[in-house]
Amino acid sequence: MVAVHDPTAAQTAPTKAAEASGACCAPSAEIDEARAEQVAKVFKALGDPTRVRLLAMIAESPSGEMCMCDLTGPVGLSQPTVSHHMKLLVEAGLATREQRGRWAYFQAVTDPLTEATKALTR
Amino acid sequence: MVAVHDPTAAQTAPTKAAEASGACCAPSAEIDEARAEQVAKVFKALGDPTRVRLLAMIAESPSGEMCMCDLTGPVGLSQPTVSHHMKLLVEAGLATREQRGRWAYFQAVTDPLTEATKALTR
Question: Which residues cross the membrane (chains A, B) (predicted)?
């Protein structure tokens, strides 16, 4: 870990070093800005207790998916509100959505969360 | 998975069923509100790319800790801004702070993140 006191140099040096050497002193410490944005997006989507509960329910549903019609009751919120929360989870790549007739069905996708966590705990 | 086509029934039926039986079809799916709040707090603290980068740097520092004076350069932000980000990480239990003379030193605590992720991926 090198302390760089010139802010301008600090913003470019680590990326250049990583590209040039491919074997920095602590390459695993490098999360570049793009990767940090991806990781933060996943965590931000889960930075709300309702979305945590929704994803947990879907992830652990015996059938591997849940109908919108079964999600509103447990969290005690209206369908438009649950739809909004589910939209954010889908946008973050944490769920997929399939329309079947009147209802939307959701499947959990937890790989992005596992990967985001690994980026900080490996 | 039963599709309930009466929206009113959909909002209340599952909760009543869970309360009545105490042994729902998928008891592990239950993350209660208090636990969901805890989990969301951890994820919310990491819902920002700068905080992701700061925690990654500290977590993977060879000495296991980093001085505030070494954090500002890599993220290209002022000390007050980095202090604010670190305060949020400390409040979420993801870092500890130790003052030594002029500088604060931070240690990463990744257990809360590991536990929060487990709550959704077990």
Answer: none
